[in-house]
Amino acid sequence: MSRTLQAPVTVAFDYTRSTGPVIGRFFSGLRDGVVIGGRTSAGEVVVPPLEFDPVTHEPTTDFVEVSSVGTVTSWTWVPEPVKAQPFDRPFAFALVTLDGATAPLLHALDVTSPEDVSTGMRVRVRWAAERTGAITDIACFEPLAPGEASTGSTNEASSQVVEPVETPVTGVVVPVSLDYDYAASPEESLFYRGLNEGKIMGQRCPTCQKVYVPPRSACPADGTPTEEEVELSQTGTITTFCIVNVPFLGQKITPPYVSAYVLLDGADIAVLHLILGVPAEEVRMGMRVKAVWKPKEEWTFSLENIDHFAPTGDPDADFDTYKHHL
Amino acid sequence: MRDVAVVGFAQRQMPEFDGSPTCVELLVPLFKECYEQTGWTRKDVGFWCSGSSDYLAGRSFSFVQAVDAIGVIPPVNESHVEMDLAWAMYEAWIKIQTGEVDTALVYAFGKSSAGVLRRTLALQLEPYTMTPLWPDTVSLAGLQARAGIDAGLWDERAMAEVANRSLTDAEKNEYAIRKGGSSVEELLARPMYADPLRKHDCSPVTDGAAAIVLAAGDRAREVRDRPAWITGVSHHVDPMGMGVRDLTRSPSAQRSGAALDLGGVEVAELHAPFSHQELILRRELGLADDVAINPSGGALTSNPMFSGGGIRVGEAAKKVWSGDADKVLAHATSGPALQQNLVCTLAASTEGNNN
């Protein structure tokens, strides 16, 4: 048996970002098939344009069109691409100074081996089949064909001023998705393995004697590791509760229902769970409840093995028995 | 300014930590070591500050869970930075300077191996024009290494010399996870990985945690005969875009070093996760040839995210505590290709404090 339980976890979120007038102008250009740089107070043409001038700190307002052909100023080989990079097979990342620009742009370069890249080589933008106003409208750079490569580069900053567009890009959605191999702590592993066997496991702090469920790696009150394992009673007391009437995204149970803190007998911290088997308006502080498990064949390493807690029918607990756990 | 010293340091580093990314399990023994070194209990610590990132942990509020390792009844004075331990130390140093507290324990942790580290770090880049391409850390370092090679500032041999010295020195470091020098020729004979980088030019993915204890004035003298006094600390940041700065330079490192008196430095612990970055830093800090660089083996042999920079401070401080050196330098970096840098000097004497 491994020391800890582990499972794959993917954390994903689509970041919706407003672009503002500078990045928005750059992205509008990409959407329309042109590369736009920003001119700085020192006369440099920077791609992508800087939102603020590095010397005067004024907003960038001076936009110029630069060529879609340029020169590699540095490159690196990517032998093992990671998810969502421009290619899923080996390629190069390159810094490319486009003709008419004075600073390089970072993007992928479509070549099949490091022998096919060199600093100083001439490349062009390969546009994406569908352009939406994003950096990925540039699919990648690609080498110029033999013969084309003699096209002379210009070191001069572009002065080809561009006018505002009628429908500028104002926002962009950047999906972010990260894959993890998530490990539970040894104490959490004890808890989930216990649930898989129909038990609720906690741990006692040797310093303050408090019993934590789920167990933690250290007692949050005094920082001491909690080593003594304690199997808890499956009966407890509702210390506080709320009646959920509001629907929300991802909700698994149809409202109204009761979420309650259940202080299991012998524990010093309550667990949050669902209360069923009683009308919502009859749920109260001090009510005695017991765990109702799903059929054994549905058990896994999850607190969801306990379907819900239901009233035992016993008299309510005295307030004094749980007043320190509110 | 108040005299503040590093008086405690503990660390753990490993290729793969088989435990929760909250790292409470690692932090509890680290704090215990700090209490043993100082003779303190947690109640002697006036201020706590941690460094970590939820992107690394793959869960929300991992730094809140980590506070369990402290124990917070009675409540503690606590803060957090999504930065390396060295910057957590900087916040604590400021806190002590305000006079509000006399002591601090700063810590940092990260389980880099939980995800794909070089990919996760794309989230620290400019989010409109860089992150959507997912430029990984190794690729960005490769662009920087190539720029210096093309400019004639260093070559593959100079990079291999850094790697060979680091791997050799790491043999004496029980925490280093990659160790064993051979020869420059042998290293150069190894295959390219991310051309122009070989694998030994890149720090290994490292899990770990570290803690540093700070104390002011007499509180420091009570703990150690030779506290490592922080005689100077400075940090700066360069623009994020890879196209708008000369990648062969690190202006923020240069400015940070120039703000301090680096004369007489005997040992420098430089946070250089890639071999060529040590060459950049030596130049930007103007370190003489007789300064011992990274006797611990450095970040090239072991680089736990969020503590790799602070570990440089701890390793440098140990040289002062032991009497091996009277004045040392520690450096920490963050961001792509040496974008953000912190430099501090530590000395056996508080004279020449130029904070």
Describe this structure in words.
- The complex is a heterodimer of chains A (326) and B (355).
- With 326 residues, chain A is mainly beta.
- Chain A folds into two domains: 7-176, OB fold (Dihydrolipoamide Acetyltransferase, E2P) (Beta Barrel); 185-325, no CATH class.
- Helices cover 7% and strands 36% of the residues of chain A.
- Chain A contains two helices and 18 strands.
- In chain A, the strands form five sheets. A five-stranded antiparallel β-sheet of chain A has the order 7-6-5-8-9, with no helix packed on it.
- The mean pLDDT of chain A is 94.
- Chain B is built from twelve helices and eleven strands.
- Chain B has helices at 24-38, 54-57, 62-66, 85-97, 117-120, 137-150, 156-170, 184-189, 217-223, 251-258, 275-285, 308-321; strands at 4-14, 48-51, 78-81, 103-111, 205-216, 228-237, 267-269, 292-293, 303-304, 327-334, 340-347.
- In chain B, strand 7, helix 11 (275-285) and strand 8 form a beta-alpha-beta unit.
- The chains are: A mainly beta (326), B alpha/beta (355).
- Chains A and B meet through strand 1, helix 1, strand 5, strand 6 and strand 7 of A and helix 1, helix 5 and helix 6 of B.
Task: Note the topology.
The complex is a heterodimer of chains A (326) and B (355).
Chain A: E1 6-18, H1 20-31, E2 35-39, E3 45-46, E4 63-66, E5 69-78, E6 91-98, E7 105-109, E8 122-127, E9 138-143, E10 171-183, H2 186-196, E11 201-204, E12 211-212, E13 228-231, E14 235-244, E15 257-264, E16 271-275, E17 288-293, E18 306-311
Antiparallel strand pairs in A: 1-10, 2-3, 2-4, 5-6, 5-8, 6-7, 8-9, 11-12, 11-13, 14-15, 14-17, 15-16, 17-18
Chain B: E1 4-14, H1 24-38, E2 48-51, H2 54-57, H3 62-66, E3 78-81, H4 85-97, E4 103-111, H5 117-120, H6 137-150, H7 156-170, H8 184-189, E5 205-216, H9 217-223, E6 228-237, H10 251-258, E7 267-269, H11 275-285, E8 292-293, E9 303-304, H12 308-321, E10 327-334, E11 340-347
Parallel strand pairs in B: 2-3, 2-4, 5-9, 7-8, 7-10
Antiparallel strand pairs in B: 1-5, 1-6, 4-5, 6-11, 10-11
Helix pairs in contact in B: 4-12, 7-11, 10-11
Keywords (chain A): DNA-binding
Protein name (chain A): DNA-binding protein
Domain ChsH2 rubredoxin-like zinc ribbon (chain A): 194-223
